[in-house]
Amino acid sequence: MVKIVIDKVTKRFGPFTAIDAMDAVFDDGAVTCLLGPSGCGKTTLMRMIVGLEQPTVGRIFFGDRDMSGLPPRKRNVGMVFQYPVMYQTLSVEENIALPLTQDRSLSAQERDKRIDEVLDILDMRDKRKLFIGDLDAGSRQKVAVGRAVARRSDIVLFDEPTTNVEVQAKLLLIRAFKLVTQRLKQTIVYVTHDQTEAMTLADCVALMRDGRIIQYDRPADLYATPATEFAGWFLGNPGMNFMPARKTAAGIETPLTAAPVAADAEVSGNGTLTAGIRPEHVRLGATAAPGAVPGVLKDLSVTIAGRFIANVRIEGDTIVKVKTDEAIAARPGDTVYLAADPAGLSFYSDGNRVAAAVRQSQ
Ligand SMILES: Nc1ncnc2c1ncn2[C@@H]1O[C@H](COP(=O)(O)OP(=O)(O)OP(=O)(O)O)[C@@H](O)[C@H]1O
Question: Where do the ABC transporter domain residues begin and end (predicted)?
Fold first, then answer.
């Protein structure tokens, strides 16, 4: 197992900077998901790790080995693409065996053992003799995963491997993928712009924006304490609510709290902040309750999981999205009441998190 070290790496294409002075360490034996909007540099970073592109500035290390200038074949990195090259006229086992046959140090017995092992983990023993052309897109991607991991390279990179797989097969593929990574303990870097996939698979998520990693955290921590407004907005469906807040002598005032709240850290300056809270940390009621603020229900919709999402207009024309499991006896246009769970309230200054709320001050 080796860790991947990105050491002050910049990648320019002509005048355009795709990766901007990036420093990062992707832990050995862990699954790191590169997550971010289209064009933020995920694929470019991946291509530099595998050696298909060279950094304009900086270096990439595998453990303490400097990879500068080394071509892909000297890096021993497995890779699974969106559209993997599969040989239609070869069987599942022959496709998985291909990279293994190039390794002359492997005996035929060892080769068979490795094929057995991945077919077993991928639950594909019964498909061993089938041709690739006989498989659906999800199963073909499973074979691609098997082929990449069977080499037992220290590092395996995945570039949006589930993009072309339909939803049901995607879930099975992700489950199979999790089993593979847990069993084989390779260092995995996985590119996706699907946050559910990243949250399900990753040990750590590297959230990218404009050629930089803006937060590197465990999925639950990234979701619970986004370090930037961007992270709060990007993660979650719907993302975090934001509204103006103000620091006063009594605490921090927000339109969502009846009284000022205390912050868990010293907030410098004296003035404007932004408060952020996730839709599931706001309680919606049809009647007034202590600590709740009034608003007007704009609309209420039911989501796939049977949860409700409400849009409520509160003071200052702020629209607050609320996620709730409970039905509410109110219609659009009615007055409703919102109560914020202080534990879910964070404060941002210039887009960066500066504190969280601790309690309602009296
Ligand atoms: N060979 C190239 N020449 C010029 N510009 C490039 C090249 N490769 C990538 N770029 C630019 O670099 C930026 C980052 O691209 P990249 O493909 O790494 O983003 P991404 O995060 O993987 O996006 P997506 O999710 O859409 O695949 C984009 O603006 C892209 O147009």
Answer: 4-235
